[in-house]
Amino acid sequence: MDTGVVPEKKSRVSSERRKEKSRDAARYRRGKESEVFYELAQELPLPHSVTSNLDKASIMRLAISYLRMRKLLSTGQYPLGSEEEEYGSVQIRGT
Questions:
Q1: Residue 93 covered by a domain
Q2: Which domain, by its residues, includes 42?
Q3: Which CA distances in Å does 5 have to 1, 8, 11, 12, 61?
Q4: For residue 81, is it within any domain?
Q5: Which of 34, 49, 51, 61 is the most buried (most CB within 10 A)?
Q6: pLDDT digits (tens, 9 = 90+) for 30-47
Q7: Which of 73, 71, 95, 93 is nearest to 83 (CA)?
Q8: So what's the pLDDT on residue 80?
Q9: Number of structural domains found in the chain
């Protein structure tokens, strides 16, 4: 007579396998994410000695600042008001 109840041992093994697969998938995603951040850091106009020691948040901040600066310089239009307010950590200094 089948009661429809899964034996405790079988469900525990299945649960452990599912957890292991989930951990492996998360580890793989983190590895791919790290590769992408490394590639992004290498594209920044900074020496390798600097980019090799940056954390992910710093890489993102620098990349965003770099893109904003390129956009600003390519348009030739400088913002009115505070540069820090509009462009975050990017500061423009006259030469």
A1: no
A2: 8-75
A3: 11, 9, 10, 13, 53
A4: no
A5: 51
A6: 999 999 999 999 999 999
A7: 93
A8: 60
A9: 1
